Amino acid sequence: MKRILFITLFLALLSTAIPILGQTVGERKVRFGAILDGDTIPYYHLKEVSILESGSLLTQQEIRKNQKLIRNVKKMLPYAKIGKQRLDVLERQVASLPKKQRKEAIKAAEKELLADYSDELKDCTISQGKVLLKLIDRETGRTSYVLVNELRGKLRAGVYQTFARLFGYNLKATYDPKNNKEDNLIERIVLSVERGKL
């Protein structure tokens, strides 16, 4: 605990110190740094590190109990991540386009997406489809219904929701790992997969 407190205080002092640009120290040139008590301390930007609670990854018993869900998440997670990437690119492309060109660009992107992935996704089970909807919400922060509504309009979103309900899906289902046990389990599976534990 003392060590964490010391590190926190040290970082707070560094963040309040005046950055020094271009000062030469020995043979090296310090781009960013701070002078504390006459000593030049270099300042480096480090990658963000996430610290997990001890219960955030799956236990061996949970792995044995949830093999089907783990398989479904591992199969659908790449599609959700690709969908997020393509959505980001599409939103940047259409941001400054007029309404007519925007609609054409969205339709072209939809055709391209269907051409690339429809054959692979046709073989998915209903449970895999439900997991994919949850993962899309996890990656984008928006439900599938909201995405269709934003990109293709309210009428199209309503039609898709109606057909989805006939097959047991709900495009309006939100991803809430804090309050929903199944979503929490999916989140823990995703974290385990991303950290190479599954």
Question: Please, could you describe this protein's structure?
Answer:
With 198 residues, this protein is mostly helical. It folds into two domains: 2-42, no CATH class; 60-194, no CATH class. The chain contains eight helices and four strands; from the N terminus they run αββββααααααα. The chain has a two-stranded antiparallel sheet. A two-stranded antiparallel ribbon has the order 3-4. The protein is flat, with a radius of gyration of 24 Å. The protein starts with a helix and ends with a helix. Mean pLDDT is 79; it is low at 16-22.
Write the layout of secondary structure elements.
Blueprint: H1 2-16, E1 23-25, E2 28-30, E3 33-36, E4 39-42, H2 60-65, H3 67-94, H4 99-122, H5 126-140, H6 144-152, H7 154-166, H8 181-194
Antiparallel strand pairs: 1-2, 3-4
Helix pairs in contact: 3-5, 3-8, 6-7
| Rounded average pLDDT | 79
Which spans of ≥5 residues are poorly predicted at pLDDT below 50? 16-22
Please report the distance between the alpha carbons of the first and last residues: 32 Å
Q: H/E series, N to C?
A: HEEEEHHHHHHH
Q: Name the overall outline.
A: flat
Strand order of the largest sheet: 1-2
List how many beta strands DSSP finds: 4
Tell me the structural class: mainly alpha
Rg computed from alpha carbons, rounded to a whole number of angstroms: 24 Å
Helix content: 55-70%
Number of helices: 8
How many discrete structural domains?
A: 2
**Percent range for β-strand residues:** 5-15%
